[in-house]
Amino acid sequence: MPKVSWDSASKIEEVGPVRDRFEILDGYSANFTVFDEDIDATSLLKGLPEDRCQCPHWGYVIKGRMTVRLGDQEEVYEAGDAFYTPPGHVPLKHQAHTEVIMFSPEEELRRTGAAVAQNAEAEGMHVRRPEQQ
């Protein structure tokens, strides 16, 4: 059975203040994500349908706090919370030093990640994608 940890993940991605280590496990991306600074990712979703993340995520907040808009309401996830964000959500605020583990369908995450990286570069953020390794 495949497994991965922060230390064993072979893929590394950085988008601005967000560090991500991950591995693809049977069509799903298992991501260990750290937000080094407060971040509102709204602008990074420009160009996606309705300017919203189109990838579902299942996850667990290890440390910190994050706020996500789902439809017309906001959900706050804090350390110790397991969560599910369906397609069409907007990551509004992730506090500095927040750490999460997320599982997402690889194909949807790849498409969303490409748009996020393009928008981040346009905003002058540092971007390091796995294919650059």
Total count of domains: 1
Q: In percent, how helical is the residue content? A: 10-25%
How many beta strands in the DSSP annotation? 10
Query: Biggest sheet: strands, sense, closure?
Result: 7 strands, antiparallel
Which runs of at least 5 residues are low in confidence (pLDDT < 50)?
none
CATH topology (level 3) name: Jelly Rolls
Q: What order do the helices and strands follow?
A: EEEEEEEEEHE
- Label the overall shape: globular
Average pLDDT works out at: 94
Query: What class, by secondary structure content?
Result: mainly beta
Amino-to-carboxy terminus distance: 26 Å
How are the strands of the biggest sheet laid out side by side? 7-4-9-3-2-1-10
C-alpha-based Rg, rounded: 14 Å
CATH class: Mainly Beta
Number of helical elements = 1
| CATH architecture label | Sandwich
Organism: Amycolatopsis marina
Pfam families: Cupin_2
Protein name: Cupin domain-containing protein
Domain Cupin type-2: 57-95
